[in-house]
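U., I forgot to send this yesterday:
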Amino acid sequence: MASLLSGADLAAVVSSGLSRTEHLAGCLRSTRGLRRTDDSGLRELERGEWAGLSLGELEARSPGAWSSWFRNPAIERPPGGESLNDLFERVKPRIDHWSQVYAGGCIALVTHGWVVRVLVCHVLGLGFELAPRLDVRTGDVTLLRWTLEDGQATLEAFGLDRLTPQLSE
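Result:
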């Protein structure tokens, strides 16, 4: 990913601060002389009591819990966790903040799958109930153009395959 993004003129690289995002963030910063910037507001969906459980373990402990959440992820919360609405309410102000701090610049946000899913749903005007169906993989790159002046955001690329041609332009 770092080599794919080597030609991108980045004003900043902001990571959730977790080690699984910091590795790529560090690679992106190293050749640009950018300082480390962490934002815990960009961390993954809080799964509460479900954190660390496999689907099999969750099903054994709470039969039907996953399928119930999957049907209604916008409002359903794992015990002690967040719904997708909650996640968006946490993440959107952080995106707005970084967009304002680096207005007009390109920012790499190195974050997590559920964060990307809710942002893509928001930008496309889709309900968060569709977010679990978006194929977001580790290492994928999604390009969003986020502007504060008119409150508009656009999805320019979703996933590595669709991004590659746009980075070379």
